[in-house]
Amino acid sequence: MAAGRNAQFIVETWSSGGAIATSIGLAVARRHTGGRHVCVVPDERSRGEYWRAMERAGLAPEVIVREPEEVMGGLVGIDFLVVNSERRNFSRVLKMANLSSRGAVLICKNANSRSDSSFRWSNVTNNGTRRLIRSAFLPVGQGLDIAYVAAEGRNSGSGEGKGKWIKQVDRRSGEEFVIRK
Predict the structure, then answer these.
(1) Which residues pair with 65 in a beta bridge?
(2) Structurally, how many domains does the chain consist of?
(3) b/e sequence 95-133, b meaning 16+ C-beta within 10 Å
(4) Which of 23, 59, 150, 177 has its CA 20 to 30 A from that of 2?
């Protein structure tokens, strides 16, 4: 997905014990796009575990050791951001991310087991500088919640006077509800 979008700056958060497959996929995408891939880990133990796993896969990623909330403001122009929904402040990380001027893809891994059950993409994008274009929940693994956020000041191409479609997916059954507002 990151390579298909030609993401030039890919950021992920990772912690000890997490799955490494996504990280390998992001590193491979970085090779295809010629961009930058940064992994933010909370401690040295996580850094070591992540580094060893990536090294076994033949990859040498850029790793930052600090809490993700502290780092996000300094990482400018993020095109593709992957966070773990099991972390207690994951929505804060999404809000603080300094996104690219051409828009961004935001992904929450482990969405079925997220720590904040009241999470909504609109809470992350309602700060005035971001606008949610579309979002989707995929029942893959522990669930992926994906959102595309528009570039600043651009519209999605839909007319102002038209109705808005709202899609809600029941996370347990996968049933989809579509409502026109």
Answers:
(1) 41
(2) 1
(3) bbbebbeebbbbbbbbbeebeeeebebeebbeeeebbbb
(4) 177
Full DSSP string of 121-170: HHHHHTTTT-EEEEEEEE-STT-EEEEEEEPTT---S--TTS--EEEEE-
| Phi, psi (degrees; rounded to nearest 5) at 96 | -85, -10
Tell me, yes or no, whether 60 lies in a domain.
yes
Q: What is the pLDDT of residues 40-79, one digit of tens each?
A: 999 999 999 999 999 999 998 899 999 999 999 899 999 9
SS3 53: helix
Q: Please, which residues bridge with residue 64 across strands? A: 40
* 4 occurs within a structural domain: no
Which pTM does this prediction carry? Answer: 0.79
Q: What is the pLDDT of residues 137-169, one digit of tens each?
A: 888 888 888 999 886 654 444 445 466 777 777
- State the residue range of the domain holding 148: 9-180
Q: Which two three-digit tokens encode residue 147?
A: 């959102």
CATH of the domain at 96: 3.40.50.150
